[in-house]
C-alpha cells in the first residue's frame, strides 16, 4: 500500500494556483519533512531552529515561515504522516487475515517493518513525544489512541478464541515495550531483518500471553 501523503500546510488560493500540480507540491513537502526529520534527529527538537531547517531543506527562511509557521508545525506533520501511514498499512494488511494469532503477527510485522525502515523518524517521535500542544497534540494523540485500540481489539479476540484470561492492557503495553525501542539496538549486520525479527518476537509474545492466560484461567477456576 502506498504511503499516505501528509496534509499539506495552509496555502492561499493565489499561491496554490501558481503551483504546477498538487503532486509536485506533495513530493516537495515529503522531501522537506525528510530534511526536518534529519535536523530533529541530529539536534533534538529544542536544539533545532527554523534557520537550521531552512538551511537543510534549501528553502528560504521566509518560505519556511510562510508554509509551516513554526518548527512545531513541522514536527506535527512528521508525526501525522508517520502514525497515519502505520495505521493505514495495518488496516490494509489485516483485511484478508482472520486467524487471531496471525492478526497479531501482522500487527508486529507492520510495526517493525516501518520502524526499521524509518529509524530516524522513530527516534524523533519517541524522544519528542510530548512536545506538541493544543490542536496539534490532540490530533496526534487521537491517532495514537486508534492504534492502541486496534491492538487491544486484537488481544481481546485472541482471548475469546482461545479461552484465555489476562489483562489486554498489560499485554499491549508490554508488546509496545518490546517493539518501540528497537531503533536503539538493532544492527542490520548482526540482527535479523524485520520479517525474521517479527516472527521471533511474535513467538515470544504469543507463547507468553497464552501460557499466562491459561494459568490465570486455571487459578480463577480453583
**Broad shape:** elongated
Q: What is CATH's topology name of the domain at 75-221?
A: Tetracycline Repressor, domain 2
| Largest β sheet strand count, sense and barrel closure | none
Distance between the termini: 49 Å
**Helical region count?**
10
Mean pLDDT: 86
Strand content: under 5%
Please give the share of residues in helix: over 70%
Order of helices and strands: HHHHHHHHHH
Structural class: mainly alpha
CATH architecture label of the domain at 75-221: Orthogonal Bundle
CATH class of the domain at 75-221: Mainly Alpha
The whole-angstrom Rg is: 20 Å
**CATH homologous superfamily grouping of the domain at 75-221:** Tetracycline Repressor, domain 2
Note poorly predicted spans. Answer: 1-21
> What is the total tally of β strands?
0
How would you characterize this protein structure?
Helix 2 packs across helix 7, helix 3 (50-57) packs across helix 4 and helix 5 (71-94) runs antiparallel to helix 6. The chain is built from ten helices and no strands. Helices cover 76% and strands 0% of the residues. The protein has a domain at 75-221: Orthogonal Bundle (Tetracycline Repressor, domain 2), CATH 1.10.357.10. It has 222 residues and is mostly helical.
